Structures are given as structure tokens and as C-alpha cells.
């Protein structure tokens, strides 16, 4: 019977089309499934509303690596406006499809959540991501402002629930504010400066792109955010607006 079997060209074309479809559906959603996008949701107390929740791709990260362009659903993590918060954590982060994962994000230190939208809506409404952030390293001098004394000068953080010994790329976002400043972020021994841009700046808003960040054997990535300069005013305040983290194919480390 096999000797009499004739393979029809139309079946070959169908097989090729089916294989192509399977390849597309198995690779493209993979990046979205392994992409975690995180920012903060900080309702203000002035009754002025605020920027809408963050969603979709972000241009700076997408320009750095197209994999970040798969962003759709973001984690807009709830925090309390203007209240000093010690060791906040959030579990059950969702991926870009909105599916709940085992990923958890936690901070060790005391920070203050900030939402700048009420102070200048026209300046901040166009950048939901960078107008809401957690801050530290400010207002600890003899004249207090903001939430008062108690902010950390340095924070430590951890992302857990990831695939163990896996390779990731991470984009870290600073903020936009009424003054330009920055802080240093260290991840796996590599330090990069994360800027806060004054709104209306001609240089625009970006972030810090960390390539080839490996999770440990327990599926964790940890880092340190260090404030720059003294902590007596907001001039040296550290502002962290969020991050995107995407798993990529592991390659052998030399």
C-alpha cells in the first residue's frame, strides 16, 4: 500500500502553513507570557483624579529591546499616597496577557509613594508611568517636607517566583518631576544611573537597561537602589517608577 501512496502537493503546502502557524503562536506569545511590567497606582488625596492605569508598550524600553514591545497588561501596584511605607511587597503579579503568576516584588526599606499628577496635570497626564513612583533619600534634614523624616537612604529589593537560573533583560524606569535628579541601581554587581527628568525636558524620558540578568537557583533577582548625595532635601531624592522584566533564551555563561 505504501508503494501506491502519492503525496499531494496541496498537503505539503498545508503542512508548511500549519508549521509556520505553530511556530508563530509558540514564539510570539512566549515573550508576552514571560514579560512582567510593573508600575505603581497611587491615588492622590486631592480629589483631582489622576493618570489612567498604565498599559501597552513603552517606547524607551521597546527601543532598547523589541521584546519589551509585547507589553499589554501592566501591574499597577497599589500604594498609599504620601504615607511613609516600610518593607512593601506585592505578590501574584500578572504577565502581559493578564495571567496571574507566582512572581512577587518586595522592597526592604522605608519609602514614600508619590503621585505628581495633581500638582501639574497638564505636565504629567501624558506619562502615567513616570508621574507615579516610590521615593527615598529626601526630607531627613532639620526642615522636613513631604512625608517627614524616616525615609531610607538606600533600599534593597527582590523579585521572586521566577524560573531558576534563567536569563532575563530588565528595564528600570526613573520618573519625571519638577527637578532633574537620579539614583544608582545595582543589579547582580552592575550599577547604572537611573534619571528623574524635569518635565518638559528636551532630552525626554528613558531609563536604565540591564542586559543578561540571571535569576539564582531559587528563582530570585535582587538589587539595591542607593540615593546620591545628602538626604536633607528633595534635590537628591531617588525616584523609582517601575520596571519591565522579560525572560529570554538562556545561553552559556563564560
Short description:
Helix content is 14%, strand content 34%. The protein has helices spanning 9-33, 59-64, 121-124; strands spanning 35-41, 75-78, 85-86, 89-90, 104-108, 110-115, 132-136, 154-160, 167-173, 176-177, 181-187, 190-198, 208-214, 221-227, 238-240, 242-248.
Provide the descriptors you would attach to this structure in a database record.
3 helices, 16 strands, 254 residues, five-stranded mixed beta sheet, 34% strand, seven-stranded mixed beta sheet, 14% helix, alpha+beta
Question: How would you portray this structure in words?
Answer:
The protein is of the alpha+beta class and 254 residues long. It has one domain (2-248). The protein has helices at residues 9-33, 59-64, 121-124, and strands at 35-41, 75-78, 85-86, 89-90, 104-108, 110-115, 132-136, 154-160, 167-173, 176-177, 181-187, 190-198, 208-214, 221-227, 238-240, 242-248. The longest helix is centred in the first third of the chain and has 25 residues, at 9-33.
Regarding quaternary structure, what we see is: single chain
Mean pLDDT: 84
Evaluate the radius of gyration: 22 Å
Q: End-to-end distance, in Å?
A: 54 Å
Class from secondary-structure proportions: alpha+beta
Please trace the helix and strand order, writing H or E for each element. HEHEEEEEHEEEEEEEEEE
Number of helices: 3
Question: What is the total tally of β strands?
Answer: 16
The structural domain count equals 1
Coarse morphology: globular
Strand sequence of the main sheet, in spatial order? 4-5-8-14-11-12-10
Instruction: Give the helix level as a range of percent.
Output: 10-25%
- Beta-strand fraction estimate: 25-35%
Main sheet characteristics: 7 strands, mixed
Can you tell me the residue ranges where pLDDT is under 50 for at least 5 consecutive residues? Answer: 1-5, 14-31
Amino acid at each position: 500500500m505504501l508503494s501506491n501512496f502519492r503525496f499531494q502537493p496541496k498537503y505539503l503546502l498545508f503542512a508548511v502553513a500549519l508549521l509556520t502557524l505553530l511556530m508563530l503562536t509558540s514564539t510570539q506569545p512566549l515573550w508576552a507570557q514571560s514579560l512582567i511590567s510593573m508600575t505603581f497606582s497611587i491615588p492622590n488625596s486631592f480629589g483631582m483624579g489622576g493618570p489612567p492605569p498604565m498599559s501597552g508598550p513603552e517606547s524607551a524600553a521597546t527601543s532598547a529591546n523589541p521584546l519589551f514591545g509585547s507589553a499589554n497588561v501592566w501591574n499597577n501596584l497599589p500604594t498609599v499616597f504620601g504615607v511613609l511605607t516600610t518593607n512593601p511587597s506585592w505578590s501574584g503579579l500578572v504577565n502581559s496577557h493578564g495571567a496571574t503568576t507566582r512572581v512577587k516584588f518586595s522592597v526592604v526599606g522605608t519609602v514614600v509613594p508619590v503621585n505628581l499628577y495633581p500638582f501639574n496635570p497638564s505636565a504629567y497626564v501624558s506619562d502615567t508611568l513616570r508621574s507615579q513612583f516610590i521615593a527615598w533619600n529626601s526630607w531627613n534634614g532639620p526642615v522636613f517636607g513631604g512625608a517627614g523624616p524616616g525615609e531610607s537612604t538606600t533600599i534593597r529589593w527582590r523579585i521572586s517566583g521566577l524560573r531558576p537560573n534563567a536569563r532575563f533583560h530588565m528595564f528600570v524606569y526613573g520618573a519625571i518631576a519638577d527637578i532633574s535628579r537620579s539614583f544608582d541601581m545595582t543589579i547582580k554587581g552592575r550599577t547604572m544611573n537611573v534619571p528623574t527628568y524635569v518635565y518638559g525636558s528636551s532630552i525626554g524620558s528613558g531609563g536604565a537597561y540591564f542586559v543578561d540578568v540571571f535569576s539564582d537557583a531559587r528563582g530570585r533577582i535582587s538589587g539595591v537602589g542607593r540615593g546620591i548625595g545628602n538626604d536633607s532635601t528633595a534635590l537628591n531624592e531617588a525616584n523609582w517608577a517601575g520596571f519591565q522584566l522579560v525572560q529570554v533564551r538562556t545561553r552559556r555563561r563564560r
